[in-house]
Write a structure and sequence with these properties.
This protein has four helices and eleven strands; from the N terminus they run αβββββββββαβαβα. The chain is α+β, with helices and mostly antiparallel strands and 163 residues long. InterPro entries: MepB-like, MepB-like_sf. This is MepB protein.
Length: 163
């Protein structure tokens, strides 16, 4: 089982009787272990972020093909409730669980007034000594991040997944 799916399953098990009710691999984002899943009536899209050698933070891509086979940012109207970005870096593990409205407000999802973004960089709490732009991104992202490297705050995890 792919490690980001395994992490998601483990975290869901901490919250009780929650389990993935459907899962679909998204081949266009296979490099980032892309998949969509549901837990009861909640829908999610998931990616595994990658560590890059030259910049701090972790890079993640998310896009889909349009009718002309061109890459485009995810549409707000067609997006699931949340986008989950897993970060697995040795012993450090965490997830960003972003509501789609927040990603629309941050210009990540495509809408009638925004072309959106096909990738972004995420900055877990353990990332330090960032430049000012990265610090600004980390600041808003922290509201949606949970570090599960050592312990899991089940109440916070439940809130991020199901609120």
């Amino acid at each position: 089982m792919e490690k980001s799916i395994k992490l998601t399953n483990t975290l869901l098990s901490y919250m009780g009787e929650h389990e993935i009710t459907s899962i679909t691999e998204e081949k266009q984002n296979s490099e980032y272990k892309g998949f969509s899943f549901s837990v009861y009536e909640h829908t999610y899209r998931s990616r595994l972020a990658k560590l890059t050698a030259k910049k701090k933070g972790y890079f993640v891509a998310f896009w889909e093909k349009d009718i002309n086979n061109h890459n485009q940012a995810y549409s707000y109207d067609e997006s699931p409730n949340k986008i989950v970005i897993s970060v697995i870096d040795g012993e450090r593990k965490g997830q960003f669980i972003f509501p789609k409205l927040v990603l629309l407000q941050k210009g990540v999802l495509r809408s009638e007034t925004s072309k959106g973004k096909m990738a972004m960089r995420v900055y877990p709490s353990w990332e330090q000594e960032l430049n000012s732009s990265a610090e600004k991104s980390q600041k808003w992202q922290m509201k949606y991040f949970i570090d599960v490297s050592k312990a899991v705050d089940i109440a916070r995890l439940t809130d991020l997944y199901f609120s």
